[in-house]
Write a structure and sequence with these properties.
The structure holds 2 protein chains of 2 kinds. Chain A has 14 helices and 2 strands; from the N terminus they run ααββαααααααααααα. By secondary structure, chain A is mainly α. Chain A folds into 2 domains: about 60 residues, no CATH class; about 230 residues, MetI-like (MetI-like fold, Orthogonal Bundle). By secondary structure, chain B is mainly α. Chain B folds into 2 domains: about 190 residues, D-Maltodextrin-Binding Protein, domain 2, CATH 3.40.190.10; about 220 residues, 3-Layer(aba) Sandwich (D-Maltodextrin-Binding Protein, domain 2). In chain B, a hairpin with a 2-residue loop joins strand 4 and strand 5. In chain B, helix 10 packs across helix 11 and helix 21 packs antiparallel against helix 22. The chains are: A mainly alpha, B mainly alpha. Chains A and B meet through helix 13 of A and helix 3, helix 12 and helix 21 of B.
Chain lengths: ~300, ~500
């Protein structure tokens, strides 16, 4: 049964205290932030759209030239390198997010069950998130080094063959995924831990009394309670993962060859190394469109769940 | 409550201390290009101090690292002499290109003096990012005398564009090769090599000989080296096969000795020609197997590390300016001796970092005054003895200077031989005279490393490189090398090894 929305009496509204109508008051409050967002986000976005519809090669005598319509978009969609970089980006994003979700859930369950040193453990796992991907990526680059790196030293010490972690086209992407998992799994684990800790302990105790196993407790209690958090974290991490750049720049610079040249790195090379702002802008707009569509589909599910919950 | 407040105060003070410590570092840019530091410039490294009042301020964009240390020292001396100010802006090499292009395209006048790589010269000059210096040089008179002492080979590659002078090379990374001459001179190694390959062990004159020697000196644990058993793997050659702007210098050096070219004389891509494919094939299938596993991700500093660690016996075509770092191997590895030689064949990567004046500069004459000071005999001597790879002929050929400074100038004789041979043969790669040369050079990094990593076959990688050349040039490339004159040779001459006693 729907509850009626309650409004405070007009004489008590904040807007009326400052001589602004109740209807305008929210807009007045967010106006300063929106001005900043507009200047630093909407203006560059609009300019990118503008460039994507024109000829724009900064190093040519013309510079920003004639209107081309959708030609740049046609060029990008016909560009095999573009689709290859999209494929690499999706491979990285899906693999990294799936592993982070599984590992994060496992760590969250472990932490949730800990009796001793829980606070210390929670503090320590934050460390990877706290450092800059570029800075720690440079360290990992030397850790991965085939001749001098610690990973091969460990591998050799246990009698396994040494690997070219960043030099083998078949392994380089997996190495970057491993780095990303190391850095962002703690974030996922903390979100899940917060969700697990919001479940009343009595629910688990009641299930245990009824003879439920650990797996049944997870499947029928924890997982349903965490479903929204799982979708939220998946979306957040996926959007972050497809924007991958720092790790690639630090670890492989897109190599070996083109094995780790993800979409953002291809856009960087096209726009900043070759100064083809027209095709780089077109790629960026297509990238933004794809991100909005994916986010919208995921958010729709969350909003539908929220609405069902509110109605209940 | 009191305890909680005390904790907040302590946390705040700790944060304040961290911020204060961070700010006290002075905000110097860090070098993320992975370059190893040469021995410091002569004298102490001091920050540039402002000249006492007056004068103009000249801003110089320079590669962060050793280059900045020396630059700041010279800046202080020039400021004291002229009363002008020199602001040295250190920029990491991986982003130097786009940083300067963006400032130039925007006509911001952010820098008075630009630093450019030889591969960018054509693009910078053609696009108007560099001021033509001939009139300024003519008007400078005797003050610019030092500038005329720059080696002619480096002037052609790094300074000249369509007959005009657009910059001056100040730091050369011209290539030769480094090798462990203690291994080459060991009687047992010599005997074993000749028995296996049928010719004497000596400085390789061709890349096939280099491949033989690399294969010969690759040893497994338990094998002997100079009569002693080795405990770990030892490799015949160090290569810069990673996705960095070095792999193309190695492979192009091989291609040029095959008579192949990146861009043919008619402006079409030459990378798919048989001679070029053979060069890539030799690199991938004969040299790489004798290199350490880390070659696939190595830049030049990793190869230096490999030599210093006693992991390799020689380099391929390599930057001679790394001599001050390479020579440290003699202290680190007992019994090791490092020698230099020209890289095999007829031609290698001959170039330098150049200094040019921005047309947006409001202080062009002051900037030229600084360049003249930089190229004075005293400044160049200090630069050279401090470990800098000078471009000045009289210093490169100063035997007394070399004898007195063996740790920093020992490579000068080899460097001078390579430069003299380049000037004599009058061959220069076409892509140094193509306006899109900088971008083509960048594409090489991608596709050459793709071949080296095995992601593509040599043929496949070069096919994509050819597409990239055509895409960057918009079809056939225009080669603006008319100013090289009738003496220009379309192919490199063979290096006169016997003349130099190799």
């Amino acid at each position: 049964m729907k509850r009626p929305l309650e409004h405070p009496p007009p004489s008590e509204t904040m807007g009326s205290r400052f001589g602004v109508s109740d209807r305008m008051y929210p807009y007045v409050l967010i106006a300063p932030a929106m001005i900043v967002v507009g200047f630093f986000a909407l203006y560059p976005l609009g300019y990118a759209v503008y460039l994507s519809l024109r000829f724009a090669d900064l190093t040519s005598p013309v510079g920003i030239g004639e209107f081309l319509g959708l030609q740049n978009y046609h060029f990008v969609l016909d560009d095999g390198f573009f689709w290859e970089s999209v494929r690499r980006t999706l491979v990285f994003s899906v693999a990294a997010v799936v592993i982070e979700l599984g590992l994060g859930m496992a760590i969250a369950l472990l932490l949730n069950g800990m009796r001793l040193f829980k606070g210390i453990a929670r503090s320590l796992i934050i460390l990877p998130i706290a450092v800059s991907p570029l800075a720690v990526g440079l360290i990992w680059r030397y850790m991965y080094h085939a001749d001098f790196g610690i990973f091969n030293a460990i591998v050799a010490a246990v009698g396994l063959p040494e690997q070219q972690w960043l030099g083998d086209p078949g392994l380089a992407m997996a190495s970057i995924i491993a780095f990303d998992v190391w850095q962002w799994t703690p974030f996922v684990a903390l979100i899940f831990l917060a969700g697990l800790q919001s479940v009343p302990r009595q629910v688990y105790e009641a299930a245990a009394i009824d003879g439920a196993s650990f797996w049944q407790g997870f499947r029928f209690i924890s997982y349903p309670m965490l479903s929204r958090a799982i979708i939220f974290v998946s979306l957040l991490r996926f959007i972050d993962a497809i924007r991958l750049y720092d790790s690639v720049f630090a670890l492989t610079a897109g190599g070996p060859g083109t094995a780790t040249e993800v979409l953002t790195f291809y856009i960087y090379r096209t726009g900043i190394r070759f100064f083809r702002l027209d095709t780089a802008s077109a790629m960026s707009i297509l990238f933004l469109y794809a991100t909005i569509v994916i986010s919208g589909l995921a958010l729709r599910r969350i909003m539908r769940q929220q609405t069902e919950l509110a109605e209940y | 409550m009191v305890r909680k407040r005390r904790k907040h105060i302590i946390a705040f003070l700790a944060a304040l201390a961290l911020v204060a410590a961070a700010c006290s570092d002075g905000g110097e840019s860090t070098d993320t290009s992975g370059e190893s530091t040469n021995t410091t410039a002569a004298g102490s490294t001091t920050a540039a101090t402002a000249a006492p009042g007056g004068g103009v301020t000249v801003r110089w964009s320079v590669i962060a690292g050793f280059y900045t240390d020396w630059a700041e020292q010279v800046a202080a001396e020039w400021e004291a002499e002229t009363g002008n100010n020199l602001e040295v802006v250190g920029i990491d090499f991986p982003v130097l290109y786009e940083n300067q292009v963006l400032e130039s395209v925007g006509d911001t006048g952010a820098y008075d003096i630009l630093t450019y790589d030889v591969g960018w010269k054509a693009e910078f000059a053609e696009s108007g990012y560099l001021l033509q210096l001939d009139d300024l040089l003519a008007g400078a008179g005797s003050a610019a005398e030092g500038l005329s002492d720059v080696h002619p080979a480096l002037l052609e590659t790094t300074s000249k564009w369509r007959g005009g002078t657009y910059g001056l090379p100040y730091y050369t990374f011209t290539m030769g090769m480094f090798y462990r001459c203690d291994l080459w001179e060991d009687p047992s190694e010599q005997a074993d090599f000749e028995a296996e390959f049928g010719y004497p062990l000596a400085v390789p004159r061709t890349y096939e000989e280099m491949a033989d020697m690399a294969d010969f000196f690759t040893r497994a644990p338990g094998d002997t080296l100079k009569g002693e058993a080795v405990a770990d793997n030892f490799y015949g050659i160090g290569l810069m096969a990673g996705r960095f702007p070095h792999v193309q210098d190695e492979i192009n050096s091989i291609a040029w000795t095959n008579g192949a070219k990146v861009i043919n004389d008619d402006g079409t891509p030459g990378v798919t020609d048989p001679g070029f494919i053979d060069a890539v094939d030799l690199y991938v299938n004969r040299l790489l197997p004798s290199a350490p596993p880390g070659a696939g991700t190595s830049a030049f500093n990793e190869v230096v590390g490999q030599m210093q660690s006693g992991l390799i016996s020689m380099t391929s075509a390599f930057y001679l300016d790394q001599y001050p770092n390479m020579i440290q191997t003699e202290e680190l590895i007992p019994g090791a001796r490092i020698c230099t030689a020209p890289s095999p064949g007829g031609h290698t990567w001959v170039g330098a970092f150049g200094l040019g004046i921005s047309p947006d500069s409001e202080n062009a004459e002051a900037a030229l005054s600084f360049l003249s000071f930089l190229f004075s005999s005293d400044s160049q001597q200090a630069f050279a003895t401090g470990g800098g790879s000078t471009t000045v002929t009289s210093i490169l050929s100063d035997d007394a200077l070399v004898a007195a400074n063996p740790l920093t100038t020992g490579h000068f004789p080899t460097l001078l031989q390579v430069l003299d041979h380049t000037a004599d043969s009058n061959f220069y790669p076409n892509y140094l005279f193509v306006p899109q040369g900088g971008k083509i050079y960048d594409e090489m990094t991608t596709w050459y490393s793709s071949a080296a990593a095995g992601e593509e076959t040599p043929q496949g990688a070069m096919a994509k490189m050819a597409e990239a050349i055509e895409r960057q040039c918009g079809g056939v490339c225009e080669i603006a090398n008319d100013a090289l004159g009738e003496g220009y040779s379309p192919t490199p001459a063979a290096f006169p090894y016997d003349q130099y006693g190799y």
